Amino acid sequence: MKILMVNGSPRKGETRAALEEMGKVFTDAGADWEIVDLGAAPVNDCVACRKCTELKKCAIGGDIVNELIEKAKSADGFVFGTPVYYAHPTGRILSVLDRAFYAGKYAFMHKPGAAITSLRRAGSCASMDVMNKYFTISEMPIVSSSYWNDVFRPSEAESDAEGRQTVRNLARNMVWLVRCIEAGKEKGISVPANEYGTWSNFNK
Ligand SMILES: Cc1cc2nc3c(=O)[nH]c(=O)nc-3n(C[C@H](O)[C@H](O)[C@H](O)COP(=O)(O)O)c2cc1C
User: What is the spatial distance between Cα 38 and Cα 44, in angstroms, rounded to a whole number?
Assistant: First the structure.
């Protein structure tokens, strides 16, 4: 089992600390995990060139997006972490995920996803809502926890014990769901044969 986590902060700070807290649970469960740090380098937004349809990767090179798609292909579950900026996820993680899902949705489909936020005070629910939409439009089961998946200064051992407990439970639920999917495959339950190809374009 491999869990791929994305740190949507430009820093290796509080968001990463929360992802690392989850990593300890994954290690205890015998799962492989990796954190992809988006870092502070400039990231392009999607330019709607649609070249990804034929290229099967994002046409904008030179940043982390295509690497993320490649890593996603061999992952069994995903955790996307973001700091809250003005009550929304970072522009950085939205630009990366817009392009990664538009160009490489099949690497993510039918695999469980979870989103976490790190913040100083307010805006976590709105941010979670945005992050969860990558999962809901991609046929991905959403993993939840025992409370809201947000953390306040998780790097400080004495702060926000509940937030750290919440993300640990989130990690346990991720492991449980991935194992359920693996057990289902062994019993012959594979992903559904869904219908695709019908598009209703309401504007031209
Ligand atoms: C540009 C900017 C906007 C922010 N907006 C909010 C906000 O709306 N609500 C909030 O609670 N914290 C806000 N913060 C604080 C960060 O969300 C918080 O410090 C977070 O834990 C940083 O995570 P990191 O260490 O992983 O970068 C903001 C920080 C920055 C830099």
Answer: 12
